[in-house]
Amino acid sequence: MRRLLLALCIIVFFAGSTQAQTAPNAPAEEGPENVILLIPDGFGPASVTMARDYLRWRDGTTELPYDSLHVGSARTFSSDSRITDSAAGGTALATGVKTYNGAISVDTSKRPVGTLLEGAEQRGMATGLVVTSRLTHATPAVFSAHVPDRDQENEIALQQLNQNIEVLLGGGKRHFLPESASDSERNDERNLLNEADQDGYQVVETTEGLSQAGNDPLLGLFSDGHMAYEIDRPSDQPSLAQMTDAAIDVLSDREDGYFLMVEGSRIDHAGHGNDAAAHLHDILAFNDAVESALDAAHESNTLVLVVSDHETGGLTLGRNRDGEGIYQWHPDELADVEASSAAIADSIRAIRQSDAGPATIKQRIEDTVARLTGVSDPTNERVQRLKNVEGPYAVGEAVSPIVNHEALVGWTSHAHTAVDVGLYAYGPGANRFVGNHDNTTVARLLADLMDVNLQALTERMRARATSE
CA gyration radius for the chain? Predict the structure, then answer.
């Protein structure tokens, strides 16, 4: 009898579990009028813990803006690799199609596939892209362009300005300037800033210019390349939250709702450099942007979704130090860091290129490292490496271990990893995202909630291309 009761209990338990897993596929009672998709590039589970632990140490904060919104996770592999790049990972989130690393919203046969942003535009919704990378970089590109290779950034810039996107904010001015302009990366004489101005865009290049912008379509390019890491950000570059607020102000003035993608781009770049402090500060800046999105959602019929395209660096909190495993990590060590490893590397390169003698160079490097990292006694071995290491990224990568060693932060890679990433949702349709999903499913669920038929959009796009 006991065995029979036990068997019945197990059957009831698993029946309930199965129902719980299928419930998120039930239709939402009401679709959102607006959608804000926030992508913290290169942001994995340990990134969440790092930010929360740091804030708890700093001021007693125990929850991040999205902690209570955690509904599931997403798988990130691409069609040709268990570890995706941002182009393939972004394409999956933008189109619901799995593709190869390097592809910008084209399938494995290099044919264009429709994006959520394009579907929103066809529905009459206003659209926007806000990033801290170049606007032509992989993640913003996958929502707004179609090319077989992510490095085709000049073509991406052209396509972006032909999409009727109401708000474009980020870096990458070099792909919009004519070849004859200093710092341009174009190979023609087209001045896309002038063309945007003639098409009715407000073109701004500073924080002040952004603050003075009105409600007309807005193109903001705040640096020639990527915008600065948050830890290094100059006052003439707006924060991610300031750009998000400006975008929402413009888009919410439209009558038929809006779709906005916001990317914390440089979280990923700090992960590539194994730069714990820069990674942390860009996460905190991203958190402020999430707060802006949630504020807008509280006042309107808006779905807010947070999901990364992949994890970067294999971050871990706690590591071996000097061969011994230590049950600790020290967020306070990150508070003393005053610049990114890349910025510190620039200072060290300048010292190395000076005419000073070897002893003076060594002392200046030690002083610079101590001042900017807060590590007062870096080992002689690490300082010697900074004196001698070569390569465009190698000096910066030699700086990062100094802080990581003291903070007990570990990394497994300078590339992406295959771990699942968190999924967070708030607003109409949020229940649809409960569970573990392939990244393509995230896009398909969003398309359904937005009443966008991505397959039909793709077919129309290809038919139009064939007829031209």
Answer: 23
